[in-house]
Amino acid sequence: MKTDAVIFDIDGTLTDSTRAIVSSWNRYLETLPYNHCLLTEESAGALMGRPMDDWTRAVLPDLPLDLAREITEKMEMQENEEIRTDGTDLYPDVRETFELLSKDYDLFILSNCGRGYIEAVMAYAGIEEYVKGHICFGDNNLDKPDNLKKLISDYDLKHPVYVGDTARDQECCEIAGVPFIFVSWGFGDVPNAAYRCDAMKDLPGIIPTVL
Asked: What is the pTM of this model?
């Protein structure tokens, strides 16, 4: 069974946006009349890959979730604009690897991030032309396993693989029945992963070995 699609996580797999998120969110939080918790690089790193509601509760713990979500969405919009103009910390060889992989596979991005974040990172990375589709928590409030199943159904994917950096990513793949490739440079550790990649440029050689 030949792999027909590669689905990528984004934070910890394609980029580390901790610096950009902490800077933009904290500036916005400091303008609010509500009790709030500023982000640190450590706390933001621990939240990477979690649904956006977890981020919302972390920074605005005392507000009703609906109101806190409205504020978080505004912070996400500011963050996305800053990433488009000021950038994010991309990992090495992202664009070159996407260009190479796109010759043999359909490429997708799936994340638990907010709406517009994937588009901002793709624009900064210069990979928009290689990505056939993307989906995230911010689009529909669905967690990663459900969005993984939805993406597979929407694009009629037969033999996709998922590339991510955390045990949660592996768990989502097990739920959806998708092979998982662990990348070692991100935020997590998955010592029992069946497939491991230690450099983005090595990924084209690993994908054909996935059963």
From this structure: 0.90
